[in-house]
Design goal:
This protein has ten helices and seven strands. The chain is α/β, with parallel strands linked by helices. It has one domain: 3-Layer(aba) Sandwich (Rossmann fold), CATH 3.40.50.720. It is globular and about 60 Å long. The structure holds NADP nicotinamide-adenine-dinucleotide phosphate (NAP).
Length: about 280
Amino acid sequence: MWLVTGASGGLGQALVGEVLSAGERVIAVTRDDEPLQPLTAASPGRLRTVSVDITDAGTLRPVLDDAITGFGRLDVVVNNAGYALAGPFEELDDAELRAQFEVNFFAAANVLRAALPHLRVAKAGRVLQISSLAGQIGAPGMSAYTASKHALEGLSVSLAAELAPLGIRTTIVEPGAARTGFRADWAGRLPGSAPLPDYLHVHEALARSAGAAAKQAGEPARMAQALVILADMPSPPLRLPLGSDAVTGIGNARSGQLEELRRFATLSASTDHTKAI
Ligand SMILES: NC(=O)c1ccc[n+]([C@@H]2O[C@H](COP(=O)([O-])OP(=O)(O)OC[C@H]3O[C@@H](n4cnc5c(N)ncnc54)[C@H](OP(=O)(O)O)[C@@H]3O)[C@@H](O)[C@H]2O)c1
């Protein structure tokens, strides 16, 4: 049985459809279950939608406990809900930055707190953390989003090591750009009034990127298929980029980081004590 957050559209909805096609059962956590009604009708008893605010830990835990207990088991948890707060860092206010972390980081933590006790009892299960190419790189105008996804990745790397001995495997999924409502959503959130003149080029680049939403390489249905394959792997990877742009972008970032590590290694190592203790 799967639990998928952010299920009303985009990758989440595609994943719910793919999991149902594979004959499995799903708890779909969403703010709006209306787009899922056709899937509910087509899969009697196999899709349960849960409308709850994932940022409210106190409400979420009992609701998820009920839903999981109702299905009798839990096999795969997918923290997929997320959005991007775009804009130059200096133009973002503190409340917006914290709200970004509430959804992309703390809500995922809330879901894990509710789900992990069930996986630990079973001594099995999969955790799929939907991060992003932005969980590995940075870009102008994306400081809030990249920070939230880096935080999710940091939690997940340590969590993976904690959970592996308990039989629970964790994979960080890093999609590249995909054709979903994601970019239209963040375009709508761009700071509208009086951009700082020094950052006009950042606004222009963000607007171009948002406008190219329909040209993104990533196909949500194919990404969903890859996630179903991933969940069946006996030895899943710690990280799985999705899309050729994610593979190239992460590869370039890691090569650059390694090159820089080597270039400054002498200065880095010069801070050691000169005498062994
Ligand atoms: N599309 C891309 O280019 C891309 C690239 C890299 C990573 N990603 C990641 O992939 C995941 C899925 O995104 P998507 O592309 O499918 O985008 P999407 O179509 O916008 O769907 C994201 C879902 O997240 C939930 N969500 C959004 N804002 C929320 C909020 N403020 N509070 C609670 N839930 C919220 C919504 O689900 P409900 O309405 O059901 O609550 C929404 O349907 C996200 O984590 C995103 O960061 C996307």
